[in-house]
Amino acid sequence: MRNAIATALCLLTLTANASSARRRAVAMPVREDLTLSFTRSLIDAGTIAHRGPADGNATRTTQDVGIRIESRSNTSRRAILRASLTSPDPQVKVRIDGITLGPLPAVIDARALVGATTTHHIEIEVSTAAAEGALLTSISWEAETP
Amino acid sequence: MKKILVLTVVILALGGANAAFADTSSGTLTVTATIESSISLTVESAGGTTSGTGTAAATSALGNISKYGSAPTGFTLARGASNWTLSSTIGVQVDKANLTSTDYTLTAQLGSAPASGVTWKLNGSTLSDSAATTLTSTGTYGSTGSYSWDIVVADSAAAAAIDNTIDFTATSN
After folding, report:
1. How far apart are CA B111 and CA B127, in angstroms?
2. Measured between beta carbons, which residues in chain A are less than 8 angstroms from residue B96?
């Protein structure tokens, strides 16, 4: 009786595992399935100069960028879009769609549409205490299937 | 039986882990800009009926003025033997951004020649329309500097408008 129960449970388990594997083979995306592309690979915000007291303690400039997530296998309809700064500067704040970026990835869109280009609003805020000169920062983006 | 159940759970857990992997893609967007240093000057206060304070282009209206009339708003009137003086102050603030300079020089100059018999003074120095007068060479950024403002009118001056413009220039040191 013990042997019979054991055999039955093993068969049940293997059967369940095998059927889910078949499902995955059809529905699950393969690794490297998503691709991320930008309408602009470089954002040049030009010259940032404080315009007076009305600007407060920082100067802000905004730029838009379009981001497209594609699924090679067409199995993903939505993705989680995150962004972070590779080298954060305390004198420069970068916000995407109002979300302040830091060294850790922040969710920009929890349900980003795959297969469509979505425009995101990038705000760069430079403190009046920042030194004059060249500003260079990189935004790391990642898209992940939920 | 216990062993079999444990085995089953392990197999199911492995199957679940295998099914839960997520696909990820990443990219980098480079942002460049040039931060430019700047200073700004604002007129914060002035005698008379003022408008545009807090900006770089304020206007002060004194209305009709006379030796034996009353002083305009924000002014005092002092009558001398052969002239009379309207006195007030002008507050000027200079702010800096993205600049390492620690102080500034502030000058003032009249926009046009003063009416005959009328003298414009700031900080006791007579202003002209031909050369700038230095008010301070160690101005402090971010705080309003108050400068005495006198308009001296000779009794012999013709009754006429005395309109003029005081142009302030701040230069970072």
Report:
1. 10
2. 128
Indicate yes or no: CB of B33 within 8 angstroms of CB of A17.
no
Question: A91 and A53, same structural domain?
Answer: yes
CA dihedral A126, A131, A136, A140 (to 10 degrees): -50
Are B23 and A31 within 8 A, CB to CB? yes
Q: Which two tokens stand for residue B168?
A: 């302030």
Bridge partners of B77? B86
Please state the pTM of the whole predicted model: 0.72
| 3-class secondary-structure state, position A5 | helix
Please give the mean pLDDT across all residues of chain A: 83
Looking at the 3D structure of chain A, how many domains does it have? 2
| Residue B92, strand partner residues | B43, B145
Complex ipTM value: 0.76
Chain segment B15-28, per-residue pLDDT in tens? 343 444 678 899 99
Residues 75..94 of B with a Cβ closer than 8 Å to A: which?
A: 93
